[in-house]
Amino acid sequence: MPHAETAHHHPARWWHALPEQRIQCDLCPRDCQLHEGQRGACFVRQMHDGEMVLTTYGRSSGFCIDPIEKKPLNHFYPGSSILSFGTAGCNLTCKFCQNWDISKSKDMDRLMDAASPQAIAEAALRHEADAVAYTYNDPVVFAEYAIDTAQACRERGIRNVAVTAGYIHPAPAREFFAVMDATNVDLKAFTDDFYRKLCGARLQPVLDTLAYIHHETDCWLEITTLLIPDQNDSPAEINALANWIAGELGPDVPLHFTAFHPDWKMGQTPPTPPATLTQARRIALDAGLHHVFTGNVHDCEGGTTFCPNCHAALIVRDWYAIRRYEIQPDDNTPQGRCPHCQTAIAGCFGKALGRNGQAFGPKRIPIRIAP
Predict the structure, then answer these.
(1) What percent of the chain has a predicted confidence (pLDDT) above 90?
(2) CA atoms within 13 A on the CB side of 1
(3) Which residues pair with residue 336 across a beta bridge?
(4) Which of 3, 200, 274, 301 could join 93 via S-S bond, C-beta 3.0 to 4.6 A?
(5) Measuring CA to CA, how many Å separate 90 from each of 15, 29, 313, 331?
(6) Average pLDDT over every residue of 88-98
(7) Cα(102)–Cα(107) distance, rounded to whole angstroms?
(8) Dist. CA 255–CA 245, nearest whole Å
(9) Cα–Cα distance for residue pair 81/67, rounded to 1 Å
(10) CA 264 remoteness from chain centre
């Protein structure tokens, strides 16, 4: 094994020994069983000297300062900035992956940026980022690195955001989401058939994760569904998905429908027509959800937060730029209020828009971090 790689081995958690000198990973529902030297389906968790190690701890595919709206999070401190990073590998095998060059990477050397959890937290402070996002690939597969970084950030008053598919077992989920302040979970579709055929996974563990986050943690939750033509975009499936969210999680969980573009192993599938997103948004609103958004398309109405009571436009978004902001802070809770009818608006809004009352805006700023 190359010396450069062994230098990055970090003890992993959530595994147990099996007979015949094997181990089983207990992080996600894949339950990978490994022999010495073998890697899990995510490619970054490996049996090494009889134990589980994480091979990407302390290494990243890059760091950027982004607007929080890119995660996407529309009701978590709008206008704020967030330091975003990921590693490599993924525990799903989505044929439509939009970040496949990172998530499917088996070339650990592409991880050129090394950074300790403390260095990331210090960089967030230095660049005046309000939060750190664990994103690009799924942070579930680098949970140890993400948790350590989140704890370092919390010690410095920096919030933490996970962008994940939610494919994780309950025990590690408890530790992971305990240090996250917000999360956007990709609900890929609402059929087990889609998950099995296109993602190599199952639907129910994701639904279990969503219910756990919303009902048993303080982590703010938003959900994203990428609509793929003829795969998960039928009105019946969208209606079922929206009704499940309304019934199981409640009407205030924001739902984002985003547009697919041809990528990875689905390069022949056409992009999502904007009309499909508009129709999906209408179906979800009719199902009782209060905050439904569209993404990856230019749709000002689909990007706007409306009061669920008087329907006033409270946060008008144009792509990632905020054109109007009328949320009133609630002195007793993180949520906001409609200034027109005083209806509570679910989310975390703070006292003002972004830093010093100014939105970060749509810019994306790549940065380097010293280890």
Answers:
(1) 81
(2) 16
(3) 329, 345
(4) 200
(5) 17, 13, 38, 41
(6) 89
(7) 9
(8) 9
(9) 5
(10) 20
Burial tier of 316 (Cβ tally within 10 Å: 0-12, 13-18, 19+): middle
Helix-strand-coil percent breakdown of the chain, rounded to 5? Answer: 25, 25, 45
How is residue 359 written in tokens?
A: 């939105």
Residue 233 token pair = 């975009």
Three-point CA angle 183, 189, 192, nearest 5°: 115
CA distance 182 to 162: 7
Dig out the tokens for 147 from the structure. 């948790």
Calculate Rg over the CA atoms of the chain: 20
User: What is the C-alpha to C-alpha distance for residues 37 and 259, in angstroms, rounded to an integer?
Assistant: 39
Half-sphere exposure of 121 (CA within 13 A, CB side): 19
Concatenate the DSSP letters of all residues of 39-67 into one string: B-TTSSEEEETTEEEETTTTEESEEEEEE
**pTM surpassing 0.85?**
yes
Q: Residue 254 pLDDT more than 60? A: yes
* Residue 100 confidence class, pLDDT cut points 50, 70, 90: low
pLDDT in tens, 317-337: 998 999 999 999 888 889 999
Residue ranges of domains in the chain, CATH in brackets: 3-54 (no CATH), 60-367 (3.20.20.70)
Phi-psi region of 307 (alpha: psi -120 to 50; beta: other; left: phi over 0): beta
What are the tokens at 6?
A: 């062994």
Q: Which two tokens stand for residue 21?
A: 């000198």
Task: Burial-class residue 194 by CB neighbours within 10 Å (0-12, 13-18, 19+).
Answer: middle
